[in-house]
Amino acid sequence: MNTTKTFVFMDKLPDEHIDSDLEEKFGAAEDWDFARGPENDDDDDDDAGSTLEQGEASSNNETTSLNAISITVQEVASESFGAFVWAGAEVLAELVWHRRHQFEGKHILEIGAGVGLPGLVAASSGAPASVLLTDTPAHPLVLQNLRQTLASNHNQCRCQCR
């Protein structure tokens, strides 16, 4: 069974921009794990109106500019280690997001990318010269999934897969 996961990375909003409506929809800012969203057990994905568009936060019909990206990845049913997002990849992706300015103009190579979350964040959040995501050809399903993930995030990501 395949699973789609969306990760949102954003800079913390100043407290004056977080009103009760946002806290009600998304939880208090201090409760956020910025790689996964607010900490809650609600799996209610039915409320399509409760998502933030990339780079925007709505507050009483006002829009505040944010530094934010959203990356969607596909985990596939496979015995390969590269078929799902590891907790370490989430931590690394969050670190890359918060240090994104260090990657400006750099050439980035992610070896054993698997689903490719850290590399996708690097490609989407800064201005690297290039990003190359690699994995072993011994697991063609992993590479195929990585290529599909790149294609589905094409509007944000400037990277290649081999």
TrEMBL record:
InterPro entries: Methyltransf_16 (IPR019410), SAM-dependent_MTases_sf (IPR029063). Residues 51-65 have a biased composition (Polar residues). SUPFAM superfamilies: S-adenosyl-L-methionine-dependent methyltransferases. It comes from the Eukaryota. Keywords: Methyltransferase, S-adenosyl-L-methionine, Transferase. Residues 29-39 have a biased composition (Basic and acidic residues). Signal peptide: none annotated. Transmembrane segments: none annotated. Pfam families: Methyltransf_16. Belongs to the methyltransferase superfamily. METTL23 family. This is Calmodulin-lysine N-methyltransferase. It comes from Fibrocapsa japonica.
